[in-house]
Amino acid sequence: MQFLCKEYQDGNPRVRGLVTDTRIHLVPSLNPDGYELAREAGSELGNWALGHWTEEGFDLFENFPDLASALWAAEERRLVPHQFPNHHIPIPEHYLAEDAAVAVETRAVMAWMDKNPFVLGANLQGGEKLVSFPFDTARPSPPTPAAAPRPLDYEDEHPELQETPDHAVFRWLAISYASAHLTMTETFRGGCHTQDVTDAMGIVQGAKWHPRAGSMNDFSYLHTNCLELSVYLGCDKFPHESELQQEWENNKESLLTFMEQVHRGIKGVVTDQQGEPIANATIVVGGINHNIKTASGGDYWRILNPGEYRVSARAEGYNPSVKTCHVLYDIGATQCNFVLSRSNWKRIREIMAMNGNRPIRLVVPGRPMTPRERLRLRMRL
Fold it and tell me: Boundaries of each Peptidase M14 domain copy (predicted)?
């Protein structure tokens, strides 16, 4: 925060462009209670677990709704996407109940995500040195037809590594941070606690490394438009004050590069033929089975890797619009606007409903209509 403000005031063109063209939100601590406990113990007396939980005993990172398992269950029943969405999956009602086991911090973050149309996010953690991306949840292996029924408390020892539809984009984002870090890709030294789990890249899919359900990353991806990753800054969760300057130098370029990635892909506005914005319109990218929605002003942002994409915009009561959008390697999202014309399907459904959803009888010219047919005609008109 100090760096961005000072460099902006000093006229740094890179920082000025970033601050001017980007809405940046910074949260110093998601778990202030845990931080106070860890700060009091310090580096020598603390460990990775100290400060991990809130005062009420919640692990905030795993306290979000497990929407991934709900999506996969719907896929197995072939309900996606016509009956169950592949994006903006609603929060289960039982999770929103007042007596639900949900931390107040988690509720606040979910409300914050719903209020702001975030596009890209990173949560900074410690205890390892790598970048982790979704899915964090491991998908249970499907049972074989000959397998015996599973008990209710069954836990699959060999879950599948399920990739998100945006797997290539997540890898790009993760590499953008790790490759700009001064030491994160030096995996020849091994990991902080075990061998290198990143295949010498400094990045890893969460389910491959540390499977867990209900993570903030998975929730953000499946409930909002935001692509969220976890950045583990170093092995020591509580470095000494004398070490902080070097830690800043290690991560400074990575932080800037990562934030700049929000301007990669496509962006635009969806309006009707009168120029009025259409909120909650669905943006569909061909070949990527994960859609996003427009914000209240009809605007949208979709991070994509370089390439050519067939993109469509759809909204209730409108005819869809399709166009080809090109994403270049240089930073700067491609403008792809859509103008939707109103559809007559809504009126057709209303007429069919008045007719009891029965086929409307064809009136033959020259044949006198019955009183019932004249009544139906007046109702349709």
Answer: 1-262
Task: Tell me the torsion sign for CA atoms 178, 182, 186, 189.
Answer: negative
Nearest to 203 by CA among 175, 182, 225: 175
Q: What is the mean pLDDT of the chain?
A: 88
Query: Do 81 and 174 sit in the same domain of this protein?
Result: yes
Q: Is the peptide bond before 135 cis (omega within 30 degrees of 0)?
A: yes
Distance, in Å, from the CA atom of 332 to the CA atom of 55, rounded to the nearest integer, reads: 43
Strands 128-133 and 203-205, bridge-based pairing = parallel
- Residues with Cβ within 8 Å of 351's Cβ and at least 6 positions away in sequence, in order, are 360, 380
Number of neighbours of residue 111 by Cβ within 10 angstroms: 10
pTM for the full model? 0.86
Tokens of 268: 């635009």
CA gap 134, 146 in Å, rounded: 32
Grouping H, G, I as helix, E, B as strand and the rest as coil, residue 1 is: coil
In this structure, what token pair is assigned to residue 230? 């976890």
Domain of residue 203, residue span: 31-141+163-262
DSSP assignment letter at 296: T
Same domain, 190 and 294: no
The C-alpha atoms of residue 250 and residue 26 are separated, in whole angstroms, by 19
What are 233-244's pLDDT values in tens digits? 988 888 888 999
Tell me, yes or no, whether 234 and 282 share the same domain. Answer: no
Residue 150 has pLDDT above 90, yes or no: no
- Where helices occur in 97-138 by DSSP H, the ranges are 104-115
